[in-house]
Amino acid sequence: MSKIPNYLNEVLDSYRRHHIEDKIDSYKELRGEIEKALKEEFGSAMYKVINSGSYKKFTDINDPFDLDIIIPFKKNRFFTLSSMYEEVRNSLSSFVNKNGGEIRSQRVSIGMTFYQNGQHIKIDVVPGREFNQNRYWEEGSLNLYVRNVGSIKSNLEMQLKTIRSAAANDQNIRNIIRLLKIWKSQRNIKLKSFMIELLVIRAFNHSSIRGSLWKQLEGTLAYIRNNIEGISLKDPGNSSNIVSDNISASDKLSISRKIGDMLEEIERSERKIGYYFPINSQFSSKTVDDFFGGSHGSRRMGTQSFG
């Protein structure tokens, strides 16, 4: 019997949210301060700040962990989307300077990193302008500024509901999404988290994904390997926005090949699973050797040997 499912369960447990509850409290407190600062700057032109991202979807892992928030603005507040983005960034720059941190411009969001009590706290802010005047709460549609591209229309709350509903209703989907996010982070895979979520849901809906945790992961990976180059994944918040087009053909091919190589290596040696899906040693004393045998000296060093 394969030992991989038990190992993967330990991996998932070591990356669970509950290990960093104190840190999450710091995130929430900082988010409240950011909302207050933006409200002072933009007043009634800004709707209520909304949590988004993996934390809201229940697909988060504790390393890396960040908090995503949406800032919806009324349509008449800004003349252009680029001016919206820049004004929000300037306002957040002032906040960052006062609180000791760094700020960076990203594709559609503004990323901030703060340093508090030896912790790195990362928060991404996505500013958006309602599509129709005073209709945000009814429609949920926002125009987002995309750096060096222009703009896109989407419904970020619809995105949240789509992923959250699938993950909440099927723990298997949630587990596989979290495992692939661990793989992405640990092996530096060029695949956005949102794309991972859509790919896993598509795999479960269009392929026979069943069996043990490893069989489900293996089946999902095989589906992505076989389909990522030609797949079309629509944004749940705007069907004309093809999310899969945001990845280059060369990156899709690279991901397909990396998955193929990974599956072949694990088939030859089960302990290779530890290379692609390592246990978070911050929150577990177990190593790959505890599941597949080998030298236990690596435990004392806080590392894992893969042989």
Explain this structure to me?
The structure is a single chain. With 307 residues, the protein is an alpha+beta fold. The chain folds into two domains: 4-15 and 162-301, Poly(a)-polymerase, middle domain (Orthogonal Bundle); 17-157, Beta Polymerase, domain 2 (2-Layer Sandwich). The protein is 50% helix and 17% strand. Helix 8 (193-206) crosses helix 9 (213-227). The longest helix has 22 residues, at 21-42.
Tell me briefly what this model is:
With 307 residues, the protein is α+β, with helices and mostly antiparallel strands. It contains 13 helices and nine strands.
Layout of secondary structure:
Elements: H1 4-14, H2 21-42, E1 50-52, H3 53-57, E2 67-73, H4 81-99, E3 101-105, E4 110-116, E5 119-130, H5 136-139, E6 142-146, E7 150-154, H6 156-169, H7 171-187, H8 193-206, H9 213-227, E8 234-235, E9 238-242, H10 249-268, H11 273-276, H12 288-292, H13 297-301
Parallel strand pairs: 2-5
Antiparallel strand pairs: 1-2, 3-4, 4-5, 5-6, 6-7, 8-9
Helix pairs in contact: 2-4, 6-7, 7-8, 7-9, 8-9, 9-10
CATH architecture of the largest domain: Orthogonal Bundle
Q: Please name the CATH topology of the largest domain.
A: Poly(a)-polymerase, middle domain
Mean pLDDT: 91
Structural class: alpha+beta
Largest β sheet strand count, sense and barrel closure = 7 strands, mixed
Number of helices: 13
What ranges have pLDDT less than 50 throughout 5 or more consecutive residues? 296-303
Portion of residues within helices: 40-55%
Task: State the order of secondary-structure elements, H for helix, E for strand.
Answer: HHEHEHEEEHEEHHHHEEHHHH
Strand content range: 15-25%
Query: Count of DSSP E strands?
Result: 9
In total, the number of domains comes to 2
- Shape, principal axes of CA atoms: globular
CATH class of the largest domain: Mainly Alpha
* End-to-end CA span: 20 Å
